[in-house]
């Protein structure tokens, strides 16, 4: 009978039993569970188990904090439960099962767009700048209309903007093939066929007569030659179609001729499916959405439609079908002398930008995320939402939904007040200049709602949802080791000077970016920003805890009876030992100043 057998039995029952455990692993301080039904875990009761120091849930993992004896606890638990432990990577993979279908879809979309985020950020800034100089009337006309130089800049920048946004299907098809491990050049070629200059540009379809649309004539059938510039759904469908076909032909084709057969049939059939079936289906979905928008705007319950449209316009942007609203806006201007629809679009864009602003506030100490978030927020406030949505909001999920809620409320206020724009303008904060003068005050109120609500919701939810790594990123090296110890920090604990562990700058334990340590769930101590790469024993003792797989931590039983846990880095358990080297063995006696562990800061 093990030391923690009884506690293990209690924990097994309180997490919902063996049948509720999809996977279990451990690190140096905590057990990591993936539960089939997280709601079955009795958290208050678990935290009362002797030896359990706390719990928290992160990235789909239910983590039970044990401390230095976690290895022994884990061994007793697996023996009692009959659950075989798995690697931390397998736990992470299994944790995805706790995502609902919408989260999985959003995650998949975010993964597809992740490689092309830099281009979207650049494109967003360029289009936002073009909107400012080419669309806003400053009294004497736009900047472009008053200066040939700026007119030339406006025209030149569209070369880049068109390449990024109109040709977006090329990037999407490439990204899908890259993500799925198939031939990337075939994805690029497929994307090019969706935006070829031989086809009628997607933006010109709405105004083209049926007999003016070019066609492929096969004798027995004709197919419209329509391009899918900036369209996301047709590109995604086409990309996955190509992946399916290439995998299928790779399975059935002999290796000796696969180099010829697989690319040929995969690409040709994928292009045919994209233009003959998948593209038209995506286009039809767009037509249905446009018809619904028009009906809602002209009904007696347009305020209700405003809430629905304000809520779901951002998801519409994801599909690329939002471009269809341009035709509706033009018709509304012609029929009613203005458009009620366009102000809601501007408010939705502002709301998405405000959610990003909330993330900027939450992640103000994470320099890496700021590089994407700040440009994305600026471009969003100038009317281009793709960088904000795909680069930030969809990545985390909750900012996207916070923006949808803010957009919904702002849209109801706008439509209920009859706010109308003279025409389509800049789809962001400068868009107020396109609003008819008598409605500017109410629209300003709507803008305020679209700014405040998403920002507040994002910050409130984000404080509970974001991990330490999300908030702060990776710790930067600190070269200055002469900084004075802060008054509130106690570097001597249980008679041991903890600054002897490693050369560097000591910080208070409360500032360590891991709640397990900062909340002193493992006891008192300090943090040290290292300037060296060797860990030393702070006093005489015996090595009691080692991590054979990750090697990122070591535990000592000191001669004065105190326990000492030395943990290197934040979430370094995920590195699987890369960059770490033990210099001592378990149960080995060590003396003060003896090297225990060597690590590489370059790996962090």
Poorly predicted tracts of residues: 475-487
**Strand percent estimate:** 5-15%
Number of strands: 17
The average pLDDT is 81
Radius of gyration: 29 Å
Major sheet: 4 strands, antiparallel
Question: What is the rounded distance between the termini?
Answer: 40 Å
Secondary-structure-based class equals alpha+beta
What is the domain tally?
Answer: 4
Q: DSSP helix count?
A: 21
Helix content class: 40-55%
Specify the overall morphology: globular
Strand order of the largest sheet: 1-2-4-3
Plain-language structure description:
The chain has 604 residues and is of the alpha+beta class. The protein has four domains: 5-98, 2-Layer Sandwich (Gyrase A, domain 2); 104-136 and 298-473, no CATH class; 167-288, no CATH class; 492-603, Glucose Permease (Domain IIA). It is built from 21 helices and 17 strands. The chain has helices at 5-14, 43-46, 70-81, 88-94, 101-113, 117-135, 143-146, 148-166, 168-180, 184-194, 233-252, 258-297, 302-319, 325-336, 341-362, 367-381, 386-396, 398-416, 440-465, 468-472, 515-518; strands spanning 21-26, 30-35, 54-58, 61-65, 215-217, 222-224, 492-493, 496-497, 504-508, 526-530, 534-536, 541-546, 553-558, 563-567, 580-582, 589-590, 595-599. The strands form six sheets. A four-stranded antiparallel β-sheet has the order 1-2-4-3, with helices on both faces. A hairpin with a 4-residue loop joins strand 5 and strand 6. The longest helix has 40 residues, at 258-297. The radius of gyration is 29 Å and the shape is globular. The two termini are 40 Å apart. Residues 475-487 have low confidence and may be disordered.
